[in-house]
Amino acid sequence: MPPEETPPPEELAEVGRYAKFSQAQERGLVAAALEVAYWVIREGRDFVLYVEPAEQERVAEDLAKFEAEFVQRRSEQSVPDLVLPKLDTLPLFIAAWVMAMFWAAQNFAPESWIDRGDAGNREIFAGEWWRTITALTLHGDLPHFVANLCFGLLFTGFLVPRFGGGVAWLGFVVSGALGNTMNAWFYRSELHNTIGASTAVFGGLGMLVAWELRARWRSPAKRGWWSLVVPLGGGLALLAFLGVGDENEHRIDYMAHFWGFAAGLLLSPVASWVRPSPAVQRICGLLAIALPLVAWRLALRG
Predict the structure, then answer these.
(1) CB 151 within 8 Å of CB 215
(2) Which of 14, 70, 151, 205 has the fewest CB atoms within 10 Å, counting from its CB?
């Protein structure tokens, strides 16, 4: 504790000036930890921390360390603004154009194309792996296509600033293919087939949730259980709200949605390790377009 009698300021050395008494008193504890006497004297609107001149340099060094640690703690504990990094809209336009082209091709193609491209579980496990990708480009009707297009672009709007356009869209295709594979395995005891990009759309949602979980886990200040539950709970709520319904009445394959979401959760850590260089993004973007084209070439051969 400071002594009862305070020497005049001219006999002391100033080591800090603060707007609040509590701030000056808190810094005074730094001096007290060094077993150095300190005084807090009000001068106008400021509260000035003084020590004996002989101890000024030693206390000033420890105060500098304290301030650096204080700033670091504040930055770790601060809640970031909900502002996305700059969004590159080019991948969104390209993806919308590609999906529209596949939808147009489906409407002009014979019905046999759907039979060759759906994700039939028996055919997939008979070696026709390309069905896990071709099924992502087929849709039951226009509302089905529009819903997948809108939500796919929405989720991508959050993914592109985090992964880059190429990696994000390749992640959509791969998570959708993995989701269809897991869905085929789930229905292995019965005949089952499915179409639609919604498996990939929910794969994108899973990637986004996993990215947020990873980001929060890497920050010690945000590693609390509630902080980790929020993004996972939000993702599951969206999955339940958008991806579950009456399977018979609305032809919703909710298990395909679930497996797509699970595939996205698993794929996101791998995608996070990809170097976000422009060359890598271009390669991944080209692969995202090439994979469906190659898959359809295999589906229609012969």
Answers:
(1) no
(2) 70
